[in-house]
Protein: Indole-3-glycerol phosphate synthase
Amino acid sequence: MSTILDKILATKRSEVAARRTAPVTRPEPSPPRGFKAALDAKVAAGGFGLIAEIKKASPSKGLIRPDFDPPAHARAYAAGGAACLSVLTDQEYFQGHEDYLIAARAACDLPVIRKDFMVDPWQVAESRSIGADAILIIVAALEDGAMAEIEAAAIELGMDVLVEVHDADELARALKLKSRLIGVNNRNLKTFEVDLQKTYELVRHAPRDCTFVAESGLTGRADLDAMAEHDIRCFLIGESLMRQDDVEAATRGLVG
Ligand SMILES: O=P(O)(O)OC[C@@H](O)[C@@H](O)c1c[nH]c2ccccc12
Structure:
């Protein structure tokens, strides 16, 4: 059975094949900003580490934010107390763009993760060239060898890697990598079903030395407080923040 994730990955492979032949003409980006360090610093200070996502649309929800303004969002997230930004750059399924990442990163001091589907180490270099400070590895999308190669490319460039898992087997595979930044996606990328229990289930299997991030389907402060009871203090939130009128106040309401 072909899932949405299979479709996205097939599109990504043909995109990469076409793009890698074009020379990169962008200016050098500024050095990487510490992505995991920014999350850890917020937690060490007794707060929550929030990765606030800039997300125009998604395959499951369609258009989320019609008046989409990445630099304005970046500034509001930073002013509201987010630790990091996440910017979707996939065009075909998420209506994202590299230019959104460039504009968002230039508008604030926060470290930025490129939220996209890595299938080839070439994309890591491309991500750094647009300024990304971190990349995502989706364990469900890759074999062990490919994950290790993509991670090595990121480490070489001084970038952090958020390793995303959805079940205990994927978590075991994630822990074979070097990165100690693990995200549990509460949304199943094959069915779009969201279940916050995924985070509670998997945090029990995560080693103490990992920075553990709950991702997807979080809608407010009550979700975060409930997770904090289980010592989960880092979160990745997109849709519910993107739908707010006052993004800065909503961000502060989550982490302030
Ligand atoms: O909008 P939400 O439900 O707050 O979710 C954000 C984020 O977790 C989600 O965008 C995401 C998590 N992993 C991904 C992988 C690819 C694309 C998107 C994602």
Q: What stands out?
A: The mean pLDDT is 96. The chain has one domain: 4-20+49-255.
